[in-house]
Amino acid sequence: MLSEKMLRALNEQLDRELYSAYLYFAMAAYFDDLNLEGFANWMKAQAEEELGHALRFYNYIYDRNGRVELGEIPKPPKEWENPTAAFEAAYEHEQFISRSIHELATLAEEEKDYPTRAFLEWFINEQVEEEANVKKILDQLKLARDSPQMVFMLDRELKVRAPRLPGLLLQGE
């Protein structure tokens, strides 16, 4: 059974994961407005991944006899100065999420909640990958210095990571 403190912290992280999806959907809309389909697709796929993370927390809370209590999700920004600024914001956000996961792991250890500490191990490893993926694109954008040709080349490369949800929604038709 989860302690009240651990339950509250897990619910807060669930909200953070939902905000992450919301933020990445906002970034996708920004890129769609710029007709950068590859960047938009990458962000939509990232948003879906964040929804998956939220669902993991949701299910875990119930697996441990907890109660999910959703909080407010703040409105994300809708504009960035340029693609580089959007990816800088994404990278900073992933670093924030990593710190949040680490704080949860520390709390689980303090609470002697070893099942939750084990559950969080997947997220600790996942955040290394999340930060690295965003940083790679950010570094490429910085190297390109917002050169239109380089941005368009990167846009084509990012089309490879397309979201799966639209296809899943169409399967019933």
What does this structure look like?
- The structure is a single chain.
- By secondary structure, the chain is mostly helical.
- It contains six helices and no strands.
- Helix 1 packs antiparallel against helix 2 (37-63).
- The radius of gyration is 17 Å and the shape is elongated.
- The N and C termini lie far apart (42 Å).
- The model has no long low-confidence stretch (mean pLDDT 93).
What does this entry show, briefly?
This protein is 77% helix and 0% strand.
Write the layout of secondary structure elements.
Layout: H1 4-33, H2 37-63, H3 83-110, H4 114-144, H5 148-158, H6 165-170
Helix pairs in contact: 1-2, 1-3, 2-5, 3-4, 4-5
- Mean pLDDT rating: 93
Number of strands: 0
Strand content: under 5%
Q: Helix tally?
A: 6
Helix content: over 70%
Rounded to an integer in angstroms, the radius of gyration calculated over CA atoms is: 17 Å
Low-confidence stretches: none
Q: What is the succession of H and E elements? A: HHHHHH
Structural class: mainly alpha
- First and last CA, distance: 42 Å
Q: Give the overall form.
A: elongated
Characterize the main sheet. Answer: none
Question: What labels would you give this structure?
Answer:
single chain, 173 residues, mainly alpha
